[in-house]
Amino acid sequence: MKKIINIILLFITFILPPVVRADMFMRAELSGMPVITPSNITANINLTYPQIGISRLWASALEPFITNNENPNIKIPVNKLFLICDGESYQLSNTGMQLFYIDPLGDIDFTRTAQKNITLRLENIGELPAGTYSVPLKFVNRTSIVQEYECDFLFTFIIEEKQTLSSFSGDPYIVLSEEEVFNKQISVKNKNDIRLDLTSNTGWNLWLDTSGITNIEGEYSFLIKSYTGNISSYEQNLTQILPNKRYLLARGTSTLEGFESGNTIPTSLTIEYSFKNNSDRFIKEGIQQYPLTYIMERE
Question: What percentage of the chain carries pLDDT values higher than 90?
Fold first, then answer.
């Protein structure tokens, strides 16, 4: 009778559908911090799984996009995410499971576990807007004894804020002639317009800082002549510059569009500086230059 019961139990084992278990026997853990470059993002994962019979390891994404949590409108298709195992690359999707490893070394010891080191790599991307990105993944171990074990893993990485500001036109170059030093009606403009090139992966403010100036003879002013790219507002008036002040020149949004390589929107600001004598005092002719500092920061 005992023999018959054993046969029945064995028969039931093979005809029942797989039993899915999500417990401590299978888990995925990040090993170190993700490595972020302008073209890809990689993260090493340590996968622990039950080594029972022949283990077949599968993976899938649970959502179609990798989403910026601060701005959900920024989405990267999940098919740019690849799993690297033993030198082979497997493209992940949210429409089906991807088999990436077969382990034939298990037995019927239900307490035995194994570990597998894999890499997640997000490929073919450009500079990304700042924020925390994430996508939920699922790992499954389908064993040869009709058992399934699974675990969820949230693939997350952080793109830090980044702004750059450059100018190739030098400082404002204004030359006051002998005839202009007493003429209050003449505004002498710079001989070289100042162009500032801006990049930012988040909303930004651009400031003109005059804390390095202690005194200005006459009237020193700036006027924003033109701009390109992602500038949402700017100072539109001719503005007199005073010592130890901060002037908001412009503000804008991220100069990155999308996630592909070469996704930078060229953004620049052209500034004209001018000088005139606003007093009856004699102002020495020659070059009129003052220390100016430009500061770009997150809005």
Answer: 56
Q: What's the one-letter identity of residue 193?
A: D
Q: How confident is the model at residue 259 (pLDDT cuts 50, 70, 90)?
A: low
**Closest residue by Cα to residue 195 from 263, 128, 250, 275:** 250
Which tokens in the block code for residue 17?
């559908």
CATH number of 22-159: 2.60.40.2040
Number of Cβ atoms within 10 Å of the Cβ of 19: 12
For 80, phi then psi, to 5°, come to -90, 0
Angle at 72 between CA 66 and CA 73, to 5 degrees: 100
The enclosing H or E element of 219 equals: strand 219-228
Report the helix count and the strand count for the chain, using DSSP H and E: 1, 25
Q: What is the pLDDT of residue 144?
A: 84
Q: How many whole angstroms separate alpha carbon 211 and alpha carbon 243? A: 6
Query: Which tens digit of pLDDT belongs to each residue from 44-55?
Result: 999 999 888 889
CATH architecture group of domain 163-298? Sandwich (2.60)
Domain ranges of the chain: 22-159, 163-298
Up-side HSE of residue 168: CA atoms within 13 Å toward CB?
Answer: 3
